[in-house]
Predict the structure.
Amino acid sequence: GSISMETESTHISSVIPGWFSEISPMWPGEAHSLKVEKILFEGKSDFQNVLVFQSSTYGKVLVLDGVIQLTERDECAYQEMITHLPLCSIPNPKKVLVIGGGDGGVLREVARHSSVEQIDICEIDKMVVDVSKQFFPEVAVGYEDPRVKLHIGDGVAFLKAVPAGTYDAIIVDSSDPIALCLFHSGPAQELFEKPFFETVSKALRPGGVVSTQAESIWLHMHIIEDIVANCRQIFKGSVNYAWTTVPTYPRHILFLFSYYYFLWCALSGVIGFMLCSTEGPSVDFKHPVNPIDADKNPSKSRGPLKFYNSEIHTAAFCLPTFAKKVIDSK
Ligand code: SAM
């Protein structure tokens, strides 16, 4: 994630007084900083750079290839929405697959649903799982549920091997398609492409649902347009875009320079999801049929829901006019 000293020093002067666009192709012209109190972990896996730091205002922060994946303070807004938007929209979900999501937060949320019997997760990078268990116990608590089965491997290959019609719900909790490293795409690139959505659709039962991380309406309308167009071709049940607020999303660390310990990110404070269903029993995502009651599934280790409720579920599908125009036209 961090860039070399020579590159850093050439950028420091341009970054501090003003904007810093050239190393941020996904959101040029924007910068924001998070103060780093302490670096807790720095490693390089076969797939990406992994960093954990203590921030001064957002608790511990997990960073992959220069992109913030979660902070202790606002992870609930993302994990609860990407999980309960699909699972509360169908009656009695039983088999659920999570692609990515190695931190375990989505597992923690899926486990709140007592109808669920099987929770498979396919995460490409074991280091993310290990680091989450070490530094984010309240997120990694998801792994403690006995229904969870962890597969380490590429989600694309995993899905190809899944028999047709296996899952009631698939949650794609991936990283962004383009990582900070400008010279190669991140491992999640394929998870945003059409062939992947086709495989997802085959792995779902009729009337099954998928929820995928789908970027920010403020920063990535061009990416969202393509995703929506692809989904409309593939998912013959329903195709919807929903969004939530997450203060530190999307989050791109432009650089971390060792002496000052500052991180620079483009933030829009919102992140979206695609919610689609396959042909079969119809799914009306805007009106949850399987409400989850914050107090219904208590678990000491898991804690109560902090963000999701049925009102915010329905509200998540209301879009600002500029985004609605584009998405409805696809
Ligand atoms: N909630 C955060 C967010 O919005 O970005 C966290 C996402 S989670 C940490 C993303 C995970 O997807 C990462 O751990 C990454 O290793 C994993 N991932 C990326 N590409 C993958 C692939 N092709 N198959 C399986 N997992 C993948």
Remarks:
- Residues 1-24, 179-184, 253-265 have pLDDT under 50 and may be disordered.
